[in-house]
């Protein structure tokens, strides 16, 4: 049951990330539908998210099977650095738009 639960979490992560990647690609390729490019129906019509499933499953299945979280300490540090970078980028972009 634990293996089935972990596999369910992996499938959920993979579907969410695939749909978000598909949304980004649809918005980039179709700038004329900027307001609706992130909707799930638009993503399903214009992008095949099933190509990302095997790639992401190869990443997330082994990560969900790790028993000791201490082994992932380096990834938490990397994640924190990336979050700070994104927050700084969003704040600088927002302030540059406010100034304009």
Give an account of the 3D structure.
The protein is mainly α and 100 residues long. The protein has 2 domains: 1-65, no CATH class; 69-100. It contains 4 helices and no strands. The chain has helices at residues 2-29, 40-46, 52-64, 73-99. Helix 1 (2-29) crosses helix 2 and helix 1 runs antiparallel to helix 3 (52-64). It is flat.
Q: Could you give a short description of this structure?
A:
The protein is mostly helical and 100 residues long. It is 75% helix and 0% strand.
Secondary-structure topology with pairs:
Layout: H1 2-29, H2 40-46, H3 52-64, H4 73-99
Helix pairs in contact: 1-2, 1-3
List keywords for this structure.
flat, single chain, 100 residues, 0% strand
């Amino acid at each position: 049951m634990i293996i089935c639960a972990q596999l369910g979490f992996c499938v959920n992560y993979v579907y969410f990330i695939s749909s978000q990647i598909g949304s980004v690609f649809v918005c980039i390729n179709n700038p004329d539908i900027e307001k609706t490019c992130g909707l799930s129906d638009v993503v399903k019509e214009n992008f095949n998210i099933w190509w990302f499933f095997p790639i992401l499953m190869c990443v997330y299945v082994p990560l969900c099977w790790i028993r000791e979280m201490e082994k992932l300490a380096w990834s938490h540090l990397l994640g924190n650095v990336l979050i700070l970078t994104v927050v700084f980028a969003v704040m600088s972009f927002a302030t540059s738009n406010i100034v304009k």
